[in-house]
C-alpha cells in the first residue's frame, strides 16, 4: 500500500469514529482543565494576595505566556492527530509564546539593574515551580495521549511532545495563580524547564503508547 493510500485510510478511520475528532478534542481539553483545576485547588491553590496581584502587569503577563502556549499547542496537536492535515501554520504559531517571553525578558533586563538579574531569575519558588507544574500537568497529559490514540498521528513522538507542551501550558496557567515570582526571567527559566519535563514525558508516551 502506498503512503498516500495509507494516510487516506487512516483519515477515513478517524472520520468514522462515533464522535468527530474535533469535538472529541474539545471535550478532552475541558476534562483536562477540570483535572488540572482539581489538583491545583486541592494542593497549593492561588496565592493569598491574588486580588492585589491581578492589578499588576507582570502578574497578568504570566497568563498571556502560558495561555498562548496552551492555545497554539492545542491547534498543533489537533492537526497532528489528523492524517494528511497541514501542520505548517499551526507549527509556526508555536513560536508566539517563546517570542512573547523573549520580549518580556529583554524589557526586564533593560529596566532592572544588572546586579538584580540573578535574583529575579532564581526567585523564591523555583523548586515548587519545578514540582507542581509537572504534578498539575500529568493528568492532562494522560488525557491528551489517550486522545492521540483516538486519532491517528503519523508522527507519534512529535505529537506526544506537543501533548506535553499543551499539558504544560495548561498546568503553568494554573500554577501562575499561585506563583509569587512574577519576573519574566523566572518564568523564562523555571516555567520552561518544568514544561520541558512534560514535553519529554509526552514524547516518551508518544513513542511507546501512541501507535497505529
Topology (elements, then pairings):
Layout: H1 3-15, H2 21-43, H3 50-53, H4 57-80, H5 88-93, H6 96-111, H7 117-122, H8 126-150, H9 156-176, H10 184-209
Protein name: DUF1109 family protein
InterPro entries: NrsF
Transmembrane segments: 24-44, 59-80, 92-112, 124-145, 157-177, 189-210
Continuous helix count: 10
Unreliable stretches, pLDDT < 50, 5 or more residues? none
Mean pLDDT, to the nearest integer, reads 90
| Number of individual domains | 1
Give the helix proportion (percent range).
over 70%
Based on secondary structure, the structural category is mainly alpha
β-strand percent reads: under 5%
Describe the overall structure.
- The chain is mainly α.
- The chain has one domain (3-209).
- 77% of the residues lie in helices and 0% in strands.
- It has ten helices and no strands.
- The chain has helices at residues 3-15, 21-43, 50-53, 57-80, 88-93, 96-111, 117-122, 126-150, 156-176, 184-209.
- Helix 2 crosses helix 9 (156-176) and helix 9 runs antiparallel to helix 10.
- This is DUF1109 family protein.
- Keywords: Membrane, Transmembrane, Transmembrane helix.
- InterPro entries: NrsF.
Amino acid at each position: 500500500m502506498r503512503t498516500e493510500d495509507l494516510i487516506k485510510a487512516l483519515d477515513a478511520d478517524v472520520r468514522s469514529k462515533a464522535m468527530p475528532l474535533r469535538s472529541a478534542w474539545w471535550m478532552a481539553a475541558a476534562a483536562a482543565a477540570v483535572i488540572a483545576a482539581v489538583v491545583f485547588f486541592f494542593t497549593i491553590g492561588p496565592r493569598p494576595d491574588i486580588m492585589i496581584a491581578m492589578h499588576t502587569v507582570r502578574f497578568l503577563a504570566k497568563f498571556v505566556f502560558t495561555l498562548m502556549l496552551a492555545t497554539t499547542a492545542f491547534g498543533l496537536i489537533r492537526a497532528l492527530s489528523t492524517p494528511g492535515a497541514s501542520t505548517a501554520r499551526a507549527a509556526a504559531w508555536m513560536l508566539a509564546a517563546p517570542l512573547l517571553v523573549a520580549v518580556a525578558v529583554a524589557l526586564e533586563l533593560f529596566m532592572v539593574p544588572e546586579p538584580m538579574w540573578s535574583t529575579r531569575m532564581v526567585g523564591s519558588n523555583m523548586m515548587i515551580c519545578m514540582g507542581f507544574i509537572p504534578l498539575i500537568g500529568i493528568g492532562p497529559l494522560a488525557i491528551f495521549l489517550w486522545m492521540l490514540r483516538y486519532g491517528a498521528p503519523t508522527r507519534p513522538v512529535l505529537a506526544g511532545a506537543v501533548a506535553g507542551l499543551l499539558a504544560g501550558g495548561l498546568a503553568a496557567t494554573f500554577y501562575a495563580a499561585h506563583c509569587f515570582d512574577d519576573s519574566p526571567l523566572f518564568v523564562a527559566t523555571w516555567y520552561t524547564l518544568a514544561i520541558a519535563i512534560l514535553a519529554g514525558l509526552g514524547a516518551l508516551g508518544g513513542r511507546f503508547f501512541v501507535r497505529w
